[in-house]
Design goal:
By secondary structure, this protein is α/β, with parallel strands linked by helices. Helices cover 59% and strands 16% of the residues. The longest helix is centred in the middle third of the chain and has 18 residues, at 68-85. The structure holds adenosine monophosphate (AMP).
Amino acid sequence: MNQPNTIHAFTIFGPPGCGKGTQAAMIKERLNFLHVSTGDIFRAAIARQDPLAMKAKELMERGELVPDGVISGMLMNELKAILDQSTGARGIILDGFPRTLGQAALLQELLEKLNLHFTGAISLRVPEELLVERLLKRAQIENRPDDTEDVVRERMRVYREKTQPLEDYFKQRNQLIEVDGVGSLEEVYERLIPIIQSW
Ligand code: AMP
């Protein structure tokens, strides 16, 4: 941790099914971080029938990304609300944002506006065959509309095209940390701890 009063933020990203949401929730619980998931924010906005979210709902159901403007507006509101309420948290985990190079530029703006210090981007790596298997299992448990096989494959394609370039983006800035996402939840969590503790 560097300056006092500066709130730290890091992002965790990876292909659909890599386990980022679960790991982020574990980090939140055990290390007292705030967890901000753009997927959860978007699902909550759909559940309360927010008009902007309802317009983009179909995109999510097809496995596409929601336009950057929709996501960034919702994320900004959520971050402001969460920062107002929270005291004593060690930092913020951004889960599922940024997901495009455009969003990476928005991230910079957002950090500056909210006076957050960016510590890095964790890329959780899992081979594709394992991901499809995991996602189809999750489809049975969570009943998510975007976990059917066709949609899962589309989400993988979108990931490769739009999100994977972020690896190079963060690497060029010396902000990329690659972590092996294969193993049990606890095994993966143990790999993340020393990285996060060092911030
Ligand atoms: P997730 O729960 O992170 O897997 O997100 C579920 C879906 O919500 C994604 O497949 C997208 O349709 C949408 N979504 C979540 N985060 C973003 C984002 N940062 N940019 C665009 N779309 C997003």
